[in-house]
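User: New here, please read:
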Amino acid sequence: MSRINRPARVGLITDQTGALSFMGIANVNVAKMITDDINARGGLLGHPIELYVEDSATDDDVAHTAAARLVREADVDVVVGGIYSSTRQAIKRPVVDEAGKLYLYPEQYEGQESHPLIFCTGPVPAQQVEPFIPWLMQETGARTFYLPSADYIWPHVLNKNVRDVVTSRGGEIVGEEYFPLDHTDYARVVADIMASGADVVFNTIVPPGLTPFLAQLNDAGFTARGGQIVCTYFDENFLNLVPAEHVEGLYGCLDYYRDVRDPFSVELLNRYDARYPGSAMFTAGSACSGTYRALKLWEAAVTEAGSLDQDEVIAALDHASISEGPGGPAAMVPGQHHVRMNMYIARSEGGTFTVVKNLGCIDPQEPVVTTA
């Protein structure tokens, strides 16, 4: 039985302007599509969902201010959003630490976020690096890896996972370097990559530095000499940023690609494309799939709780599941605040991604969240 007498209020923060606007616009589209679908079916527990959207502008200070506005002025029941891990921390301060509100983070990231009020709905290293790197080493014979990276928490933690997996299988990390997010001149590190003879470049450089790095790596002839580029966050929206030849053969590992052909994923993609034609595509690395899961798992939790009471919703969210979603079903692993989901390896071919391996359903293997 429903025990609410007002609309549910959802706050979304994402980059509608700035370096990651091509990602954020798609996330807004997904949130609008889901909330419109729920409202068209009579709302949540008999009341409409009100969606409040804020632009984080690829600027953590802007994200912090936007998050504070959502909890102080709109008094939302839940906040969804953030792309960079630093943005997650900027949102966390006013939403979680100060207001004590529920926060759902939808992007693939480095893992290790552990807080009673935070649930994460994108993949983590145990779902990306740990199944993918052994497959890559076996399929391509790669043994030496170079790790060019942006200098923030996600690349540092992800690279540690890469190092552990590669070295445990007899491989070697031949280079690991970190650059500011706005760095654009990669001539020296590209020369080092070529001199090292690395089989694989495992890239965690992000926009705006991503495009010049890939261009300079291509001009140096890295892939022409047989090198493999790996970028676990790279999706179809990122393919719009670079010439196809700069990423031909690039491997990624995500929870969804547009090439995934199960009936629900196909139907969802067709509905999205019909409603939002254009360059802001429904993808995984851009957090669309995680945004979809966040909102649908929260809907399931509120429905089970029959209430917007935060403690009751959190208790239900801890084991919430959806039988259908982009890439397949998904479920919170009780106690971990992270999602068990299907994972896929894909390869860039002719300007699009082709799924080359369905890894099946993989657990996040995150620590149990303590409530004390």
Summary: Residues 258 and 283 are 7 Å apart (CA to CA). Residues 129-231 form a domain with the Rossmann fold fold (CATH 3.40.50.2300). The mean pLDDT is 96.
